Automatic annotation (TrEMBL):
Entry protein name: DUF378 domain-containing protein
Keyword Plastid carried by entry: no
Keywords annotated in UniProt: Membrane, Transmembrane, Transmembrane helix
Transmembrane segments: 7-34, 40-61
Keyword flag Secreted: no
InterPro entries for this protein: DUF378
Residue ranges of coiled coil: none
Species the sequence originates in: Faecalibacterium faecis
Amino acid sequence: MQTFYKICLILMIVGGINWGLVGLFQFDFVGWLLGGSASIWSRIVFTLVGIAALCGIPGLFSDDSSEN
């Protein structure tokens, strides 16, 4: 399960950086890299980032005090 959450974190970081680029420079890096925002590959990445963010929500409410 540790690997799953690390993958989710990486996807959320990619999404956050992409949103930062969109906000600051109006540049969609994922869309640019994968053939436009409407391409199937971009939509797959956007969907995976969204799912990763949803999977990260329970981590906000866990009381796990051990740091790994």
